[in-house]
Specification:
2 domains; two-stranded parallel sheet; 47% helix
Length: 125
Amino acid sequence: MKAVPPSFHLPAQEFIAEIQKLNGTPKEFFENPEIQKVLLPLLRSDFQITDTYQYHDENPLACPITVYGADQDNLATLNHLAPWKMQTSAAYKTRVFPGNHFFFQSQKEEFISTLRRDLLETLDV
């Protein structure tokens, strides 16, 4: 797995450039300093969580897990999805959609339909 260098601590303009590279943030964010002022602290916190997270081995959960990913995601590749199987002693599924890290935006209807079906199946409704 390729390590991604932390970015939550970068100066504002460098941090914004990193966000822009992800291709999932609306253009209005990049065009409006007032929106940036409000959202940058939240985004930094989000990035800090993922940049500093360290996995600790624990017993698997006893509930089913369904993992959703995309075939062109360079951040969470299909190889990154497979280890989730070790986190459950119950059923496990992987759902792969066309698209990049923000596939749920481009595949919105199909994703919501699949998620709904999976939730109902899990709840056995």
